[in-house]
Specification:
This protein has 117 residues and is mainly α. The chain is built from 5 helices and no strands. Helix 4 runs antiparallel to helix 5. This is Pilin.
């Protein structure tokens, strides 16, 4: 005798059916949130007022240049920290290649800060 019924609507074995039911509901909720998020993002991008605007950070360019530009105190502190860390690494490793790494870090810092400013 075979009875075809929904396995999630059984009385016996309700704990297992409950686990399957919550897993199915969670999967459906994830699909709904994913599709709803895609719809909201597409509406935000498609709206012309949200797509066009002015640069609100343009007045702050002088502040960024003075903070991250060449000759700023932040770069000097980075150089000092790199040299101190290089000395600690040299004491630990006793390898003169650490000083090549210090030069590489200083060059990288200089390039990165010039790009940032």
């Amino acid at each position: 005798m075979s009875i075809k019924d929904n396995a999630l609507n059984v009385v016996k074995g309700w704990a297992v059916a409950s686990l399957f039911r919550t897993a199915l509901e969670n999967r459906q909720m994830k699909k709904f949130l994913k599709n709803g998020g895609l719809i909201l993002i597409s509406l935000m991008v498609a709206h012309p007022v949200l797509a066009a605007g002015t640069d609100l950070l343009a007045p702050q360019q002088a502040t960024v240049n003075s903070t991250f530009g060449s000759g700023s105190s932040l770069i000097k502190w980075f150089y000092i920290a790199e040299i101190v860390m290089g000395l600690f690494i040299y004491i630990k490793a006793r390898s003169p290649l650490v000083f090549v790494g210090i030069v590489g870090c200083i060059i990288f810092t200089r390039v990165a800060f010039s790009i940032a400013s």
